[in-house]
């Protein structure tokens, strides 16, 4: 009996030491998954033991982004063992449990249970788990935040007014769940033309930074709209793992989150 208590205490200590960083957005398509993957990779490059949970259970994209598509997590006891990715970031995604492209149409409670298993896995020495939340501000998000109490949340927005209004709703979600806001990232700000290199602003520029300032949130950095980000992401090569200018942009955001 004493032995079992020790094991439990050990696990509690392990869980206490581990922190969850949630990445959220008010709506889909703003680059939340891209940021989550690259933030995790950038933190790992900075020497932290980082894991990634793809909580976007209705549209999991992390296996593609970190080249673990088709992999199945092993289990020990009744818990999953995270899948190692080539970028030093162990990870778990619903995408690892269903066939690629298979639609996942679950009701809230089941979705919540599935997410539970991804977070409550054998994370071993992992110190920080980056959680790519589903877009929006529904029940799955709220119950996850209430249950796992992330140490902090990062909000992603594009510079468009509409996306920013959605971001404001996401901020409300984290405040309601009493999750401290680490800051805001502006994605798809400034378009670098692949032909002439000229920079333009299809979605405006600086909107998220101004909004962050108005709301008293730290501004963590800006990622331009860059064709190479989409191409590399689709090919399973996270830009944060490379040596281009985007790797430094993600590293700078990672340093801001860790500070
Ligand atoms: P979300 O998780 O918010 O739905 P994703 O991260 O899946 O958004 O991004 C949506 C699409 O936009 C993906 O095809 C992704 O590769 C692309 N994308 C994201 N950020 C950028 C960027 N800064 N430049 C170019 N393409 C991007």
From TrEMBL:
Domain of life: Bacteria
GO biological process entries: iron-sulfur cluster assembly
Organism placement in taxonomy: Bacteria, Pseudomonadati, Pseudomonadota, Alphaproteobacteria, Sphingomonadales
Keywords: ATP-binding, Hydrolase, Iron, Iron-sulfur, Metal-binding, Nucleotide-binding
Function text: Binds and transfers iron-sulfur (Fe-S) clusters to target apoproteins. Can hydrolyze ATP.
Binding-site residues, ATP: 26-33
Record text on subunit structure and interactions: Homodimer.
Similarity comment: Belongs to the Mrp/NBP35 ATP-binding proteins family.
A single MF term (Gene Ontology): ATP-dependent FeS chaperone activity
Identification of the protein by name: Iron-sulfur cluster carrier protein
């Amino acid at each position: 009996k004493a032995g079992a208590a020790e094991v439990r205490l050990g696990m509690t200590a392990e869980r206490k030491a581990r922190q969850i960083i949630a990445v959220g957005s008010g709506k889909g398509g703003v680059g939340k998954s891209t940021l989550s993957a690259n933030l995790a990779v950038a933190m790992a490059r900075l020497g932290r033991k980082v894991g990634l949970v793809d909580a976007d259970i209705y549209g999991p994209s992390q296996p593609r982004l970190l080249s673990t598509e088709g992999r199945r997590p092993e289990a020990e006891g009744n818990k999953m063992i995270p899948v190692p990715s080539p970028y030093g970031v162990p990870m778990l995604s619903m995408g690892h449990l269903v066939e690629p492209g298979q639609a996942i149409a679950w009701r809230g409670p089941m979705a919540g249970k599935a997410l539970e298993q991804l977070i409550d896995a054998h994370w071993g020495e992992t110190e920080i788990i980056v959680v790519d939340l589903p877009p929006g501000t529904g029940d799955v998000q709220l119950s996850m935040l209430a249950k796992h109490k992330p140490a902090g949340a990062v909000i992603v927005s594009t510079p468009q007014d509409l996306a920013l209004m959605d971001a404001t709703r996401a901020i409300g979600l984290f405040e309601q769940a009493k999750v401290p806001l680490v800051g805001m990232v502006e994605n798809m700000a400034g378009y670098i033309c692949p032909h002439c290199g000229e920079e333009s602003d299809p979605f405006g520029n600086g909107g998220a930074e101004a909004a962050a300032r108005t709301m008293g949130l730290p501004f963590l950095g800006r990622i331009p709209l860059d064709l190479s980000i989409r191409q590399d992401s689709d090919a399973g090569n996270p830009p944060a793992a490379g040596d281009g200018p985007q790797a430094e942009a993600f590293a700078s955001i990672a340093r801001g989150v860790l500070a």
